Sequence to fold (244 residues):
Amino acid sequence: MKNTKLYTIFLVLIFNILLINTSRSQVLISLLLGDVLNRGGMEFGLTGGDNMSWISGQDDGRMLNTFNIGFYFDIRLKEPWYLYTGVLVKANMGTTSLNNYPVGNPEIDTLMKEAQVERKLKYFNVPLMIKYRTKIGFFAMGGFQLGLLHRGTDIFTEKIIDKEDLSYSYDITKDLNRIDAGLSAGLGYKFQKGLGVNIGARYYYGLVNIYKDTKNKGVNSSVYFFADIPIGAKKAKEKTGELE
Fold:
């Protein structure tokens, strides 16, 4: 039974990674396979919410507010312990209000000489966490998170008249390490009635320097506020009676 669960998870992860360029594909797969994957001690669904991120160890920059969306697996190991994993398909990290710098194009540098800079780093993040859930629904979890960088962009915005009406995007992907990894921990609550939605917050602290140039130091940090919504759980329960 355990081997079947792991094999199913592996196939879905690979399938989603192949289609990861569009979150719509991920959502469609989740909707189609939800009641199939919600079996026995395994819960599957969509996850999403708000995250506030910054780059620790960097002198400048402020917190960047973005959103995340993906899918999750909550796998029962032995009551009350669970394995929490999945993929955040859209999971931006980074920082904002960075100090301006020249990009090597005289025209751009002249236009953007007083611009504000937002550093947006797009990752595919995979949490691997152990969860402890109480009988009344509260839970705590901790473990690791692995990330694969898709693209890094610095967005320059300049005020020309009375607002930020001039923007320039500068690709910095080549200057960044593709792999990110770190520690994560969080708290939350699972509603026992209805769809059994999970809500909570977790903190991530990266252990890998995001920059290839070792003279630059910075690691990703982020606070996630999330809601996990089971897909097809009620239908699966009606069919098999296996879910709680």
